[in-house]
Amino acid sequence: MKNISRKKFLNVCGSIVAGGAIAGVSGVLLNRTTSRAAANPSGARYRQEENTSVSPYRQVASFEAADNIQSLAQHNGTIYLATPQTVSVYDSRGTMTRRFAVAAETVRDMAAGSDGIYLLHPAAISVYSHDGQLLREWSACSELSNYCSLALSDDFVFVTDMDNKNICKYTREGNFVTFINSPGRFIIPSLTFGIECVGDLLYCSNSGRHQVEKYTLNGEYIGTFGKAGGAPGLFNGCCNPVHISCTPGGDIITSEKGIPRISCYGGDGIFRGILLDGKQLGGGYTAYDVKVWNDRLFVAGKKKVTVFRYDETLASAGSACASCGVSCPLRRGGINM
Length: 337
Hints:
Elements: H1 6-39, E1 57-64, E2 71-75, E3 78-83, E4 86-90, E5 96-101, E6 109-113, E7 116-121, E8 124-128, E9 134-139, E10 147-152, E11 156-161, E12 166-171, E13 176-180, E14 195-198, E15 201-206, E16 211-216, E17 221-225, E18 243-246, E19 252-256, E20 261-265, E21 271-276, H2 278-281, E22 289-293, E23 296-301, E24 304-310, H3 312-315
Antiparallel strand pairs: 1-24, 2-3, 3-4, 4-5, 6-7, 7-8, 8-9, 10-11, 11-12, 12-13, 14-15, 15-16, 16-17, 18-19, 19-20, 20-21, 22-23, 23-24
């Protein structure tokens, strides 16, 4: 063992004592920081600014599923809810019309079309008839895939892969077509890789960059919109937006986690306004899944689906929608179902 002088020994001890004092102060600060982090487990790096505008949407109905909702889909006003090993089907008023069992425990996302109900699993896709019969299924085209979201076009299925950081394109029959890669690289820290087909365009979230990217259905990159921040029109936290949907008029609807909110953007990326904030959505930290049918917003969180509809009285009180000059199908509604 190397000898140490008394002077050096005292200096070391002094450093330890000082370090302990600093650690004590740091511990208090860390404890305070941890307490704040516990209140916001999303790890948000940006404080969301208060939404001072009034939402023009009023809750008009709600209904509950038997278990936690893993995914929400809609097709021509029919609502589909995936819970562990079950798909339940509801009419637009929330009355369940049928339910059927599915083999897989986990459903990451779901979409419905005239040819069936598409369920996305962590490394596979299954397709069921509207009566609940398994029609076909196929495994992921890549090793170590971790699928997140899917979208349907008329002829293709698009799937986002969190681990491989790309979009996989399949035919409706399950034949692999190609990979779509971001020219700036997808940064996806968690299962926050939403995707939506809007006509002949594809929108997906590059959540680690706080952006939404736009492609043709052939995978050609068109552009990007979105920036990080807590103000309306920016994407808050560590990885947002989580979910992407669209209106009948082609506007883009985004849903964020951390401090949940649902916002509307034009197809060109211009911010329209916040449609629903965390208080209206029911709080929490998880992003709410959202789908649009005609003039109604269907929002799913935990075991509950809530239906919102545009209210002219609320809109006239100073909402972002009231000042928007776009002819939006969502604004044609009233407060009655």
